[in-house]
Design goal:
By secondary structure, this protein is an all-alpha fold. The protein folds into two domains: 88 residues, no CATH class; 227 residues, Orthogonal Bundle (MetI-like fold). The chain is built from 14 helices and two strands. The chain has a two-stranded antiparallel sheet. α6 crosses α8 and α8 crosses α10. The radius of gyration is 24 Å and the shape is globular. The two termini are 15 Å apart.
Length: 332
């Protein structure tokens, strides 16, 4: 198979291999570490009988490759757990069972994902709009006061922690000006308008930090494109500066932006911990911190695996979009 279809197939196979390698690394890091894995998995308050039961469920006496096979089997085919008095079935994809809350990890993650997706997708739209707009204007007004002001704002945003921006926004917007209520997550299906209003400040807090990278990247890529020979030719033929910026320079600058955005989107699924904690959003990042604090190992492993999955998936999609934007990638 050749052409664009072959390119997509190669990227899909590459993503599958990466996910397999990621699952091996995660399993080894968390389940083959020195110490009593059953005690760590069960938690510090478990009795010896409960620790013994967890060791049997994890099949710690089996060879490593057998244990890993059962781990994969649970993801693709489900798994049965013995509670001593009954057998509970965990449907695929099964990422284990929390020994702290007695919940299936998959169900726990699915309950938290809508909150995190709401935060990350809304913030992503804002950081792309702010970052690309800032970068284009800075490149267009190079050497002028506008560029200096925008560069200063970008550097300030890049250097300010998200919790500082979030606190300032809540104090000013919610406390002093009373323009918005203090954020409290509302499900989109219940009230779309309140969902958006309550997420506006979290979106802004996360977007103002992330947009600084996109502004610098867009400005740098556009200045590089504007210095190329074909742009000078367009100018010599009398093509307007706006047409050059919009049709040629910006299109050339979007390729690295797509790649960076894919990585940031995937990372933010599990990495927006400070934003979720600051605004009280019950998402993946906040739940991961709680699982680490109470040493809920199955939840930690499941969430790290899901976060890695989204990073790999987002980068695979970015490669395809990259190829759509520039067909020379398919031929390389």
């Amino acid at each position: 198979m050749s052409g664009f279809g072959g390119f997509v197939l190669r990227r899909a196979l590459g993503a599958a291999v990466t996910l397999f390698a990621l699952s091996v690394i995660i399993y080894v890091v968390f389940y083959v570490t020195p110490g009593n894995v059953a005690q760590i998995t069960c938690g510090p308050r478990c009795s010896p009988a409960q620790v013994h039961q967890v060791a049997e469920q994890l099949q710690l006496n089996d060879p490593l490759y057998v244990r890993y096979w059962h781990f994969l089997e649970g993801i693709f085919a489900g798994h049965d757990y013995s509670t001593g008095t009954s057998v509970q079935h965990c449907s695929a994809p099964c990422l284990g069972r929390s020994y702290q809350s007695d919940q299936q990890v998959t169900e726990l993650i699915l309950a938290k994902l809508p909150v995190t997706f709401s935060l990350v997708i809304g913030a992503m739209v804002l950081w792309l709009a702010l970052g690309i707009g800032n970068g284009v204007l800075s490149a267009w007004r190079r050497g002028r006061l506008t560029e200096r002001v925008l560069t200063g704002v970008t550097l300030a945003g890049f250097a300010t922690p998200v919790f500082v921006i979030g606190l300032v926004l809540m104090i000013v917007v919610c406390g002093q000006l009373e323009l918005l209520p203090f954020p409290q997550y509302v499900d989109f299906s219940d009230d779309p308008e309140q969902w958006a209003w309550n997420l506006l400040l979290p979106w802004l807090s996360l977007a103002l930090i992330e947009s600084a990278k996109y502004a610098r990247l867009t400005r740098s890529a556009m200045l590089e494109t504007l210095a190329e020979d074909h742009v000078r030719t367009f100018r010599a033929y009398g093509v307007g500066e706006r047409a050059i910026i919009g049709r040629h320079a910006l299109r050339g600058a979007l390729a690295p932006v797509i790649a960076l955005n894919a990585n940031d989107f995937g990372s933010a699924i599990g990495g927006a911990v400070l934003t979720e904690s600051l605004f009280g959003l019950p998402g993946i990042g906040r739940e991961l911190v709680h699982a680490v604090n109470v040493v809920d190992l199955p939840v930690v492993v499941g969430m790290v695996l899901v976060t890695g999955f989204f990073v790999v998936l987002a980068n695979a999609v970015a490669d395809v979009l990259y190829a759509v934007a520039d067909r020379r990638v398919v031929l390389s």
